[in-house]
Please model this.
Amino acid sequence: MEKGINPIATVTDAGGAVRRPAVLISSSPHREGSEYTPWRDLFDVDNGHIRYFGDAKTPGGDPALAPGNRVLLAAHAQHTSFSWEDRAAAPPLLFFRRKTVMGVPKGYVAFQGYGVIERVERVSQFNRKSGATFTNYVFDFVVFSMATEHELFDWTWITARREPALTIAETTLLSPRAWRTYVDRGPAAFTGLRRRAAKLRITRREAQLPAPNTPEYRVLDTVYRYYNGRKHRFEGLAYEIAKRLLAGSGKRIVEGWITRMSGDGGADFIARIDMGEGFGAVRQIIYGQAKCVALSSGTDALDIARTVARLKRGWFGVFVTTSYFSERVQMEVIEDEYPILLVSGLLVAEQTILLAEEAGLKLHQYLDRIDSEFDRRLANRRPEEVLHF
Model:
């Protein structure tokens, strides 16, 4: 577990079939942004998703040759294969994250679940320590449900996969139910197998804002200061954050525009999200609002009410703020089942960090780039026009 990507050695069974028992994936939050880990992994295990950066760090180097990336790229080919045999032999990924215990950030790991690789993407990243840009891979992992196993992971399965005397079919019989379903049905089963942990949906103010003296707090403070005095231009960054959050498997974001200050009908930005293909595809208008306010200033319920009042059938609201949403605002959205995504200051900070890193830019450079594109994206158009693009 010294490395981020830790493959268990392959074994060959009596029939000559080769399998890797498992790959242990480790993330170290205390190293994020350092010369050792110049990126930031996202663990959202309660919603069955982890976004994990590979181990390439060398400018000019082929990221596929980094030892960890090489293992995960091979695993991805097996995880997404149409062959039952390939999927059964594919290594399960076991996820761990280092935790701070009694003020000590090293030496303690917490199990986060298991799963497979859903998607792989090449990205350019910027190492703030060395000042160099390099190419790497980012992996989207599916974290499988363990509800049938009462949230307990039985390591007997992994031990069996390490035993050459057992065939792949025999070890699969010892696997969790979600794994057996995946092996039988393939990637089409991902949606139904993804872990979903029911949680209280009201989030306290403290959980919506980054803690003081953290990288996220410094980023959010920088964002607020950057746009203070010309807060309407925050709409450009909010637009990028909304697109990134809404883009995902089976969805496509169609570029829209940022509305001008006069005559915008209440919207700050417009885009479109497409789901599905062909005649049965669904197109929804993204109706966005952006508020750049001091971190201590909560979002007024009236602002949300105005946004909701303008939503029509087939529209999807997004409200992005540098601050937080009060319990009253959250209760109204939940109880009335409004189709609106609430993006608080912490999420703004996290997404801005990722956007800048994926662009291979420092924070101020990225904000400058977004701001330089702001005027070009301005338009006075009816939201429905985005459906005809």
User: Anything to note?
Assistant: The first helix runs from residue 67 to 79. Residues 205-388 form a domain with the Trna Endonuclease; Chain: A, domain 1 fold (CATH 3.40.1350.10). The CA atoms of residues 212 and 218 lie 8 Å apart. The radius of gyration is 23 Å.
